[in-house]
Amino acid sequence: MNENLQNFLIGLWENAPLMAAICAILVTQMLKVPVEYLLHREWNVHKVVDAGGMPSSHAASVAALTTTLAFVVGPSSPVFATSVVFTAIVMYDAGGIRRHAGEHAVLLNRLAMEIARSGIYLEPSATSEGERLKEILGHEPREVLVGAAIGVLIGIAFGKWW
After folding, report:
1. pLDDT tens by residue, 70-94
2. What is d(CA 67, CA 153) in angstroms, rounded to the nearest whole number?
3. CA angle 67, 21, 66 (to 5 degrees)
4. 53 near 143, Cβ under 8 Å?
5. pTM of this structure
6. Residue 132: DSSP 8-state
7. How far apart are CA 92 and CA 99, in angstroms?
8. Cβ 113 vs Cβ 77: under 8 Å
């Protein structure tokens, strides 16, 4: 292996904030399967790659990143301050704007079904006929909070022991 590539990979591995964020994504995405089962009594392994749902991997990843940065660079660092703002934006987006986009998709899908049932002809769109918009895009506030809590715990672990 090329020495530069090897040093690059070692640098990534030793980057505690990055590893914490990746770990938080993996943990929360895997947790979505048993949570889905507990809530709906249905095993759905596709939840591992789905956006939305409980817990929020968006919130977990940025919370883990920011928490670990507090340990690595300190709370007075401009890097930590940047990460706090980034975390707030991502969590607001995950629980607000993206959730509302999902709610709009539900309404648009319902409207499209009603139009199709009524027999009204519309010009074909660029999408294939019968395609539905993805309805689960964002998170409920509790999903964001649970994801953030998991991220903070993972961030503390990585900040102290990585």
Report:
1. 999 999 999 999 999 999 999 988 8
2. 8
3. 25
4. yes
5. 0.75
6. P
7. 10
8. no
